[in-house]
Amino acid sequence: MTGPRVGDAFGEMLRTGLALASPSAMVEIVERDDGLIRAATAERYFAEPAAWLPFERKALDFAAGRVLDIGCGAGRYALALQARGLPVTALDVSPGAVDVSRERGVTHAVLGTVSDHGAAGERYDTFLLMGENLGLLESAGQAHRFLAELTAMASPGARIIAHGADAQQSDDPAHVRYQRRNRELGRMPGQMTIRVRHRDLASPWFDYLLCSPGELAALVAATAWELTDVFDVDPVNYLAVLTH
Amino acid sequence: MTGPRVGDAFGEMLRTGLALASPSAMVEIVERDDGLIRAATAERYFAEPAAWLPFERKALDFAAGRVLDIGCGAGRYALALQARGLPVTALDVSPGAVDVSRERGVTHAVLGTVSDHGAAGERYDTFLLMGENLGLLESAGQAHRFLAELTAMASPGARIIAHGADAQQSDDPAHVRYQRRNRELGRMPGQMTIRVRHRDLASPWFDYLLCSPGELAALVAATAWELTDVFDVDPVNYLAVLTH
User: Fold this and answer.
1) What is the interface pTM, i.e. ipTM, of the complex?
2) Minimal-distance CA residue of chain B relative to A33
């Protein structure tokens, strides 16, 4: 038992998907640190706006001015905003995601974290955290640092447009158990420690925060951001707009 | 990091697939002990003969008399043989596979290994090892025990009908590396140590043998079986018929 190599599993998955005639044949595998594993088609990363859920199209209507697409994946949101004529910077920590975004036509795709990118001194009017990327808040502690980094890059009146998911809406025993353990460890219940696996690669473990709109409002209370709109998509998923 | 629970991952995957409107949405995840992971639709377990590859339909033309379908999965071959009027016993070590096979209409599905089942004293004219189940030979050492167990259950002139896959046809670096390690350990190059994962479950690790027709001929040389026919499906897959 040697275990997977640590590397750009997510990016290699996207590269493989891009090379396929039908990206729906590509499967994304995500493993949680309690051993739970989930595999689902990676088709959504390559989906055109016509195939999106209505709330995803609605999300882009809130975008204005200079946009930073955080965790851009294969660039689907960045491409749609470019098509609308908005200046977009697509950011991802995955070299494969950045390459695939460029190959698919994203004109400004950048490798790095929000923290790395903040050093460049750019200002933005809109920060996108789509594709459940509100999860990039990671944890209660990290959320404050992350939001402060966005503040430092925010133009006056800037917005964050985020897709969130409330883990506590599930009655699945594996999830209930995991959330109970999180509470015992003093974490927010929806803090997930996960990694992506692809062939013999695994990404490093990372935290991903699934929180309710109420938890999100509490998290941003002490920051420069205000939760100004929440649109429920279904009992789990929601679209959040935060204003600076 | 607690890791998955050991259990009937394969059977739970089949149960979930059976409950879905579209089994193609079900994904089977197989992990190798070097960390390689593979996810692919589990649709084939539920496929009707019309959707099979031609060699799979051809395989059933070699079946005659009393049939033991070894590693029956969701019972697709057993159901097709029942429809032809043949008496079939479907055998699987997975309780979920046995339940799903029964629910799908297999009239005689049995839980257990070949070794368990041999104790029942039944005799068969045909042993099916379809769905790549020639892999159940496991290893050079286990193959001889397995084939002896079939011999003990074989009627005169009995046949084994097996779907094999030759791992050495791949030039994928991860596979080449794995096969090299196997040779260093004195194993046959295509001996894979794998497990199935589904949600928070993992099957026990088990060995699965991918061998070439030439290796198979060598393996059976000292047994009561003779490799009488090999039909190449593609450079990797083949259909083998062994006669007692």
Assistant:
1) 0.85
2) B1
**Can you tell me the mean pLDDT for B40-60?**
94
- Do B106 and B75 contact (CB within 8 A), yes or no? yes
Q: Which residues of chain A have pLDDT under 70?
A: 1
Please list the residues that pair with B129 across neighbouring strands: B162
Nearest Cα to Cα of residue A138 among A91, A98, A194, A178:
A194
Element holding B9 (H helix, E strand): helix B9-19
Residue B72 phi/psi, 5° resolution? Answer: -75, -15
Specify the residue for token string 């194993």.
B187
Q: Tell me the two tokens of residue B69.
A: 């379908």
What residues of chain A lie within 8 A of the CB of B197, using their CB? 37
CA distance A205 to chain B (A): 10
Residue identified by tokens 């927010």 is A188
Phi, psi values for residue A56, rounded to 5°: -70, -40
Query: What is the pLDDT, as a whole number, of residue A23?
Result: 75
The residue assigned the tokens 């002139």 is B157
Residue B6, by phi and psi: left (phi above 0), alpha (psi -120 to 50) or beta?
A: beta
Euclidean distance between the first and final Cα of chain B, in Å? 50
Q: What is the pLDDT of residues B99-153, one digit of tens each?
A: 999 999 999 999 999 999 998 899 999 999 999 999 999 999 999 999 999 999 9
Distance CA A197, CA B195 (A): 15
Cα dihedral across residues A159, A160, A163, A165: positive or negative: negative
Cβ count within 10 A of residue A180: 11
Per-residue model confidence (pLDDT) at position B1:
65
Contact yes or no for A4 and B36 at CB 8 A: yes
Whole-number pLDDT of residue A192 = 97
* B5 contacts A37? CB cut-off 8 A: no
Inter-chain contact B2–A34, Cβ cutoff 8 Å?
A: yes
Residue of A37, A182, A184 to mutate when probing chain B, most B C-beta within 10 A:
A37
Q: Across the interface, do B39 and A33 touch by the CB < 8 Å criterion? A: no
For A128, list phi and psi in degrees, rounded to 5.
-100, 130
Partner residues linked to B6 by β-bridges? B202
pTM here is 0.90
